[in-house]
Specification:
Length: about 475
């Protein structure tokens, strides 16, 4: 079925009528015009909401049924408010549809790609729909003189855009990204059942950009909406959606396992979780969510073990909780492997206690790291002023002398002694003394930063500075 010329539709406020060689088209005089490829759940909601904000939008899909639904002002998806919204924007002429991809690109300033990214048989990402849409857009860009921005809103793993899609766009168009056209990744954070509300009141807006001009243009689509706004490198924007959804899945699994344990004990799990959720200082907060080194101390390891034991006694399987300590052990192993990979034998460690500002060594991951390196024959020297033998009292002195005597022999409060000794410096604390020591590191030192010290972004640009998990 052929599309009616856009000029046959109602002329929305702010649009100008211009002539092409074959027919009259409606083109924007001030506002950006958008084309949206893929009119499934995300594409349909995005197209309708953007049109409701005054942007002329043309929707493109390979499914003629979706095209016909939208042409008649009807919704192809069931969602709160979407039916009324689509009827309004189609009636106003702000949302039109087409089955001609090239025409849609040529008549728009920004193309938003919202096609599906299903799982491949091995669990990876199937990119065939992305690739097909990209090739169509690239072929259209070859015929276009003006700057155009391609925005990927489909969920895709980091590297997909820069390694697969951008090369296809450049190959099909014969043009260069960031020069002749721009590319952005703009992940969506829409929940089924409230997607219109989520679009118009977003928790955040993220735009990964190939160039400053394109990022500014795409972020402008959301001017006036709430929530924090982030313009970032493209792979960062690709990653954030996976972080969100994985954490949401983790929360569901955690809540269900706590419920199963409570039920086995005859407890009201909702009463327990109401108390848990009331804590917005530590529980529902940013606390403990920054990548860094393994956890330790007098509480977390033993309490996870105790809860796991309780679950086993009551024959309750809790695989999420069961793997918390396994995950922690793997992170410790990564740190050891990272040091081994450097191929240097003299090691200096700054920070030994499980938490900065204390002398508590109970289940400290830094103690375990030092133990493993010493056990593998590395020449280790440790500096932690709070734990230095001259200041140890009571339980910690006994702990060092009886269980970790070899660590006691390499422990010092002399920063210079560690700097003079080491080829590799391991930062295990963010205390000012550790920051100062790392700042004095010379070209002969390789710094392994386990805690992301202040100024780490600047330091990591130099050779010989590596982080763990960031």
């Amino acid at each position: 079925m052929e599309d009616a010329p856009l000029a046959n539709l109602k002329n929305p406020t702010g649009l100008a009528v211009v002539m092409s060689a074959t027919e009259v088209y409606v083109r924007p005089s001030q506002r950006m015009t958008l084309s949206v490829f893929g009119l499934g759940y995300v594409g349909c909601v995005s197209a309708a909401c953007l049109a409701s904000r005054g942007f002329p939008v043309v929707g493109v899909d390979v499914n003629p049924a979706k095209i016909e639904f939208l042409r008649r002002g009807q919704t192809p998806v069931f969602e709160e408010r979407i039916g009324q919204l689509i009827a309004e924007v189609v009636e106003s002429g702000l949302l039109t549809v087409s089955d001609d991809p090239a025409r849609a690109v040529l008549e728009s300033d920004v193309t938003m790609v919202c096609v599906g990214t299903p799982s491949a048989p091995g669990g990876g990402l199937a990119t065939r729909y992305l690739e097909r849409a990209t090739d169509e857009i690239g072929a259209a860009l070859a015929k276009k003189d003006s700057f155009h921005v391609v925005v990927y809103r489909s969920t895709m793993v980091p590297g997909t855009c820069e390694e697969i899609l951008v090369p296809r766009l450049e190959r099909a168009s014969g043009k260069r990204v960031g020069v002749d056209f721009g590319v952005c990744v703009n992940p969506e954070f829409l929940r089924e059942g409230s997607s219109v509300r989520d679009f118009l009141n977003p928790p955040k807006t993220v735009v990964g950009e190939s160039d400053e001009r394109s990022g500014r243009q795409v972020m402008g689509l959301y001017d006036g909406l709430g929530g924090p706004r982030f313009r970032v490198p493209i792979p960062v924007a690709e990653m954030v959606k996976y972080v969100d959804n994985s954490f949401h899945a983790l929360k569901v699994g955690f809540g269900n396992e706590i419920g199963a344990i409570c039920a086995s004990l005859g407890l009201d799990s909702h009463a327990v979780m109401d108390i848990f959720l009331a804590d917005t200082k530590l529980n529902l907060s940013a606390a403990y969510l920054r990548p860094g080194f393994a956890f330790g101390g007098s509480c977390l390891p033993k309490d996870v073990r105790a809860l796991m034991h309780t679950a086993r006694v009551h024959d309750v399987e809790v695989p999420v909780l069961a793997n918390v300590l396994v995950s922690n052990e793997m992170h410790l192993r990564r740190a050891v492997d990272q040091v081994i990979a450097l191929g240097k034998r003299r090691i200096g460690i700054f920070g030994l206690s499980f938490k900065p500002g204390t002398d508590d060594l109970r289940e400290s991951p830094m103690v375990e790291l030092a133990e493993r390196l010493i056990g593998k024959g590395y020449d280790v020297k440790i500096c932690d002023a709070n734990v230095a033998l001259s200041r140890l009292l009571g339980a910690n002195r006994e702990f060092i002398e009886e269980l970790l005597p070899h660590i006691g022999q390499v422990l010092t409060d002399d920063v210079d002694a560690v700097l003079d000794h080491a080829e590799v410096l391991i930062a295990g604390s963010r205390e000012p003394s550790v920051v100062a020591a790392v700042n004095r590191a010379g070209a002969q030192h390789t710094v392994v930063d386990l805690v992301r010290l202040p100024g780490a972004e600047e330091r990591r640009r130099r050779e010989g500075y590596v982080g763990l998990g960031w």
